[in-house]
What we know:
Organism: Schizosaccharomyces japonicus (strain yFS275 / FY16936) (Fission yeast)
InterPro entries: Yos1 (IPR013880)
Keywords: Membrane, Protein transport, Signal, Transmembrane, Transmembrane helix, Transport
GO cellular component, one term: membrane
Subcellular location: Membrane
Largest sheet: none
Amino acid sequence: xxxxxxxxxxxxxxLNAVAILSEDRFLGRLGLxxxxxxxxxESKDTVKSRVLNLIRAIRTVMTFPLIGINAIVIVYKLIxx
Length: 81
């Protein structure tokens, strides 16, 4: 059954997936690791660089908030099912 919680849980799962991506194992194979990034001073505004910057920002900023949000969701699911 579709309700307002379903898209929120999907977003949470996607954020968790992005937060745990390994640059060396997964992103390196796709050419999205920091080793394949452009040098300092060369700011190429490509889709690849934007995706890499988004992944890095999510991993940097959302690490600790995701821990708290995941704990809240786990408690919510345990109590209310």
